[in-house]
Write a structure and sequence with these properties.
four-stranded parallel beta sheet; elongated; alpha/beta; 9 helices; six-stranded mixed beta sheet
Length: 251
């Protein structure tokens, strides 16, 4: 339930660890709730190198996008009109918006923002899923759950890495300045942001944030944060940015 208190995050310093080009949406939501946002990117998204060759899309029944990064980098490699002869599935409204903004059609939007939810949506939509040819553009660190499960039921799956995740170089002085700000809340929107955050800071510096509240967008992200040595305090029931911001406000 949304928090009805005006500016419930007033006086709170909230860290956004998303890639710099993608931080704005969550930052704006948190600022609207009264937070002072600290951007500390722990991930850089880069086009796959070398650039992959995309097979003719007429060879596929479905193209499934499990992130906005996958959508945008895939559409850097093909024309949106090439998707007209197959069906497309997007994980959540953010990814569907990214596709439509680039002129691509969206046939199915999975309501749950994790791969398990995408698989459920595909099953509900397509009774012949086990016979279909499926293309999954993805990042180099993406989970294999959807690919493995589709193959397990008999579908013909091709997954292609269209972008790569990199750890940004952060100067020691920048890290110290960040820690001196004494942030109240840390937000993680992917497993990579949590793992990279711990890697950039190192164990000793990470211990200086033991009093900070940690918010993870979903179970995979929460598990990565815990493995990195962080206690997770907030995890929304729905795995999207708006639900994450509201869960932080309610907390």
């Amino acid at each position: 339930m949304p928090n009805d208190t005006p500016n419930p995050l007033a006086g709170k310093k909230v860290v956004v660890t998303r890639a710099r080009a993608q931080a704005g949406k969550l930052a704006k939501m948190l600022e609207d709730l009264g937070a002072t946002v600290i951007e500390f990117p722990t991930i850089e998204i880069r086009a796959a190198d070398p650039r992959p060759t995309i097979p003719p899309l007429t060879e596929f029944d479905w193209v499934v996008f499990t992130s906005t990064n996958a959508a945008n980098h895939f559409l850097d490699l093909v024309d949106a009109s090439d998707l007209q002869n197959c069906r497309t599935c997007a994980i959540g409204p953010g990814t569907s918006t990214a596709l439509r903004d680039r002129g691509a059609k969206v046939d199915l939007i999975a309501g749950d923002h994790i791969q398990e939810g995408v698989l459920d949506a595909l099953h509900e939509e397509d009774a012949l899923l086990a016979t279909r040819r499926v293309l999954i553009p993805k990042g180099d660190l993406a989970r294999d759950y959807l690919t493995d499960e589709l193959k397990r039921i008999g579908a013909h799956v091709t997954d292609i890495v269209v972008y790569q995740n990199a750890v940004p170089d952060v100067a020691p002085a920048e890290i110290e300045s960040f820690l001196d700000a004494v942030p109240d809340i840390l937000t993680f929107t992917s497993a990579s942001t949590a793992r990279n955050f711990a890697h950039i800071l190192g164990k000793e510096r990470l211990s200086r944030l033991r009093n900070a509240t940690v918010a993870a967008i979903g179970p995979e992200t929460a598990a990565a944060a815990r493995e990195a040595g962080l206690e997770v305090h907030i995890q929304p029931a729905k795995h999207d940015l708006w639900s994450l911001a509201q869960a932080i406000a309610n907390h």
